[in-house]
Design a protein that fits this description.
There is one protein chain. It contains 1 helix and 3 strands. Strand 1 and strand 2 form a beta hairpin. It is globular and about 35 Å long.
């Protein structure tokens, strides 16, 4: 099962790109860096820890 890469912060609705910085809890609630800092890295939805979301780099169209 793949990680859901939500594209907006759930608090301020700032865009979150798949290859940019974002923070998630174990339920995949997603937040931007400034909101995560303002919330002391605690998810307001479940009370869980917010950790750095892995980045998803777009696939290259070049052949090896």
């Amino acid at each position: 099962m793949a990680l859901e890469m939500r594209d907006t912060c759930e608090r301020c609705e700032t865009s979150l790109s798949p290859d940019g910085e974002a923070w998630i809890c174990s339920y995949e609630c997603s937040f931007c860096g400034p909101c995560t800092a303002a919330m002391d890295a605690v998810c307001p939805n479940c009370g869980g820890e917010l950790v750095r979301r892995p980045r998803r780099v777009p696939a290259s169209n070049t052949e090896a």
